[in-house]
C-alpha cells in the first residue's frame, strides 16, 4: 500500500508542477507583423547635423541581412560607416568626415527584418543634412544586361558632377545607389543638378569603378525630378513608401557590359604539358611578343596558338630535345606603364613542368613492357551516332600534328554491303590550324549511314607519337526530324539581326538572319528542342554583338531576348510574333 500511495503523490505533484510551469505555448498564428521604428536619435530628417552616431530604436529585436552589402550611405565615404546591432536598436557609427551643406541618405533598403520570423520592415532610409535644409530632388531608372537582356541585380549606380577631367576610376561619386532584385535604382534627396551616371559591379565593394569591372553609362547627362510626396509618420519617426511609385514615367535605362581591358601586362603563365607553355595577358595584345629559351643552343621551333581575344598565347615546343622539365625563357613585349603608355618590357620566366604522380608503384616488369608498347596519340571528333545533314565534322588532336594531309582520311557511305567513297572538303581551323580540322561533305537528310576512318600510323604529333586508329560511323536525321519556325517582327530596322538560340546556351546562335523588309522570317531545319529568340541591333553590321567602351564613350550594342520559351517538335511548324521596344 505504501508504494501505491507514493505513486499517487508523485502523479499529483507532477500535475501541479506542469500547471505551475506552462512554458512556451506551441502552435498558434504565425507572427507576420513587421518591426516598427519607435525612435531615431538624432531625429530622421535632421538639419545642421554634427553627430558621429545615429541610433534607430525598434519595438522588438531585429536583424540586418548582410549589412556590408545592403546598407549604403550617399554621398559615399572613403571609410564606410560601421553598422552594429544592440538588442532592439541599430547603431550607425560615422567614421569619416561629412561634407558641409550636404544632404546624406543612409539606405537600409529592405535589409531590416524582425529577429524571429524575418518579417521585413520595408524600405527604410535615414536622412540628414549638414546644412540648413534637405535636398528634395530625385532620379530613378533600371539597369539591364546588354548581351542577354537580363536584370542587373545588386550593382552600384553612381552620379558624378560633369567635368572634362572626370575620372570615375579615381574619384568617389557625388551620390551612390544600388539596384534591387528587378534592376531598379533610385536616388532621393539629392541636389538639383545635371549628372553623369555610371553603373558598375563593384566586385571589391570600394564604391568606385575599377578596371575590368562590368559597367554601364549614358553618353548624355541625366536630370533630376521631383518625387511624389512620401508619407511621414511623425510619431514613429519613420518613412514608409512604395519606391516604385515615387517617380512617374521612368524611361532611364542603363545596359551593363564587360569592358575590353586596356592595360597590357603578363597576368600569368603556366606549363601544363612538357611540350608547351601558356602566356596569359590582361588585355588583347597590340603588338608582337618575343620569346627566347635561355642556355639552349637548339632551335625550339615554336608553334604558337592564339585565342579569339588575342590575350592568350600557347607555345608548342616542336623540338623534342627541348621538351625538358625546367626551361628558362626571355620574354619581351610592350607593357602598359602607370601613365597608360605602352613601353618595351623584358622579363625572365622559369617554366617548370611537374609530372603527375603515379597512383601506384609499378613493377619493374610492367615498366619494361611499357618500353615495348607504342605510345599513340588520339584523334577525337564531334561526331555522334546521328547528326544533322548540314553539320560540319570536326577532328581534334590534343597535340599539334605538323603534317596532316586529307588523303589519309577515308569517308564512305554504307549501302547494303557496298562502300561508296565520298568526296569532301578539308579545312584547317583558323585558330588551331595544327590541332583542329573541319570536314564538309554533301550529306542528305535520308537516314543514310556513313563511316569516317583514319588508319593508325598515318600522322604524327610534335613528339613523334603516331596516331591511333580512328573510325566512327554515323547516320543523318530524316527530314521529318526537323521543325520549322515562322517569326513576325514589328519595330525592327535594317541593323537588326535575329537569332535563334538554345535556352540553355543563349550566347550561341543556332540560326540567324538579317532584317527583312516586312519583318517576316522563316527558319527551317531546326532540330526539336527549347529555343529563345534574340535580336541584336548590329549597328556596325559585323554580324556579332559588340561591347562598349567608356573611355571612347561608345555604348554597347543593344540586345533583347524573347522571354517565352519556344518548344519546337519534330515535323512541326510554329509561328511567333514579337513587337520590339528599345526602351523597355
Structure description:
The chain is mainly beta and 584 residues long. Strands 11, 12, 14, 15 and 16 form a 5-stranded antiparallel beta sheet that branches. It has a 5-stranded mixed beta sheet with strand order 28-35-34-30-31, with no helix packed on it. Strands 37, 38, 40, 41 and 42 form a 5-stranded antiparallel beta sheet that branches. The model is unreliable at 1-25 and 231-238 (pLDDT under 50).
Radius of gyration: 34 Å
Number of H/I helices: 3
General shape: globular
Helix content: under 10%
Largest sheet: 5 strands, antiparallel
Architecture of the largest domain, CATH level 2?
Answer: Sandwich
User: How much of the polypeptide forms β-strand, as a percent range?
Assistant: 35-45%
As for the number of domains, it is: 5
Category by helix and strand content: mainly beta
The averaged pLDDT comes out at: 88
* Gap between N and C termini: 88 Å
Model regions low in confidence, pLDDT < 50 over at least 5 residues: 1-25, 231-238
CATH fold-level name of the largest domain: Immunoglobulin-like
In total, how many beta strands? Answer: 43
CATH C-level class of the largest domain is Mainly Beta
Amino acid at each position: 500500500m505504501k508504494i501505491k500511495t507514493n505513486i499517487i503523490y508523485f502523479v499529483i505533484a507532477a500535475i501541479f508542477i506542469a500547471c505551475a510551469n506552462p512554458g512556451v505555448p506551441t502552435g498558434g498564428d504565425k507572427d507576420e507583423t513587421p518591426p516598427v521604428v519607435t525612435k531615431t536619435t538624432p531625429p530622421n530628417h535632421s538639419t545642421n547635423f554634427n553627430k558621429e552616431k545615429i541610433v534607430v530604436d525598434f519595438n522588438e529585436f531585429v536583424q540586418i541581412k548582410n549589412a556590408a552589402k545592403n546598407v549604403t550611405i550617399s554621398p559615399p565615404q572613403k571609410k564606410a560607416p560601421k553598422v552594429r546591432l544592440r538588442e532592439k536598436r541599430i547603431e550607425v557609427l560615422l567614421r569619416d568626415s561629412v561634407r558641409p551643406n550636404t544632404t546624406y541618405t543612409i539606405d537600409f533598403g529592405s535589409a531590416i527584418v524582425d529577429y524571429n520570423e524575418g518579417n521585413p520592415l520595408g524600405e527604410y532610409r535615414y536622412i540628414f543634412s549638414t546644412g540648413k535644409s534637405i535636398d528634395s530632388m530625385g532620379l530613378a531608372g533600371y539597369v539591364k544586361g546588354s548581351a542577354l537582356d537580363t536584370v542587373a541585380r545588386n550593382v552600384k549606380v553612381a552620379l558624378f558632377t560633369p567635368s572634362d577631367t572626370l575620372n570615375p576610376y579615381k574619384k568617389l561619386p557625388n551620390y551612390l545607389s544600388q539596384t534591387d532584385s528587378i534592376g531598379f535604382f533610385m536616388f532621393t534627396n539629392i541636389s538639383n543638378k545635371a549628372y553623369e551616371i555610371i553603373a558598375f559591379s563593384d566586385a571589391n565593394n570600394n564604391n568606385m569603378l575599377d578596371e575590368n569591372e562590368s559597367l554601364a553609362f549614358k553618353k548624355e547627362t541625366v536630370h533630376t525630378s521631383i518625387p511624389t510626396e512620401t508619407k511621414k509618420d511623425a510619431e514613429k519617426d519613420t518613412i514608409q513608401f512604395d519606391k516604385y511609385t515615387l517617380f512617374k514615367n521612368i524611361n532611364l535605362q542603363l545596359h551593363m557590359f564587360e569592358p575590353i581591358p586596356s592595360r597590357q601586362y603578363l597576368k600569368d603563365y603556366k606549363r601544363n604539358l612538357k611540350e608547351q607553355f601558356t602566356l596569359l595577358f590582361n588585355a588583347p595584345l597590340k603588338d608582337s611578343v618575343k620569346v627566347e629559351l635561355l642556355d639552349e643552343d637548339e632551335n625550339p621551333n615554336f608553334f604558337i596558338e592564339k585565342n579569339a581575344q588575342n590575350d592568350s598565347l600557347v607555345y608548342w615546343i616542336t623540338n623534342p630535345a627541348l621538351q625538358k622539365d625546367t626551361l628558362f625563357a626571355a620574354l619581351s613585349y610592350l607593357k602598359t606603364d602607370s601613365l597608360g603608355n605602352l613601353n618595351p618590357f623584358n622579363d625572365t620566366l622559369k617554366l617548370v613542368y611537374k609530372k603527375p604522380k603515379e597512383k601506384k608503384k609499378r613493377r619493374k616488369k610492367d615498366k619494361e613492357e611499357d618500353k615495348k608498347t607504342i605510345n599513340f596519340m588520339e584523334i577525337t571528333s564531334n561526331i555522334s551516332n546521328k547528326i544533322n545533314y548540314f553539320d560540319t565534322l570536326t577532328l581534334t588532336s590534343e597535340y599539334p600534328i605538323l603534317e596532316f594531309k586529307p588523303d589519309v582520311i577515308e569517308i564512305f557511305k554504307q549501302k547494303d554491303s557496298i562502300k561508296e567513297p565520298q568526296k569532301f572538303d578539308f579545312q584547317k581551323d583558323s585558330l588551331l590550324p595544327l590541332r583542329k580540322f573541319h570536314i564538309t561533305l554533301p550529306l542528305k537528310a535520308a537516314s543514310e549511314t556513313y563511316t569516317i576512318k583514319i588508319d593508325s600510323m598515318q600522322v604524327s604529333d610534335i613528339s613523334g607519337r603516331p596516331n591511333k586508329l580512328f573510325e566512327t560511323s554515323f547516320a543523318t536525321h530524316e527530314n521529318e526530324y526537323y521543325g520549322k519556325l515562322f517569326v513576325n517582327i514589328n519595330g525592327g530596322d535594317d541593323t537588326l539581326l535575329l537569332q535563334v538560340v538554345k535556352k540553355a546556351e543563349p550566347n550561341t546562335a543556332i540560326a540567324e538572319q538579317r532584317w527583312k523588309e516586312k519583318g517576316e522570317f522563316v527558319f527551317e531545319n531546326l532540330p526539336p528542342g527549347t529555343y529563345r529568340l534574340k535580336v541584336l541591333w548590329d549597328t556596325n553590321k559585323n554580324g556579332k554583338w559588340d561591347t562598349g567602351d567608356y573611355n571612347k564613350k561608345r555604348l554597347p550594342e543593344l540586345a533583347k531576348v524573347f522571354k517565352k520559351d519556344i518548344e519546337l517538335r519534330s515535323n512541326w511548324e510554329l509561328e511567333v510574333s514579337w513587337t520590339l521596344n528599345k526602351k523597355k
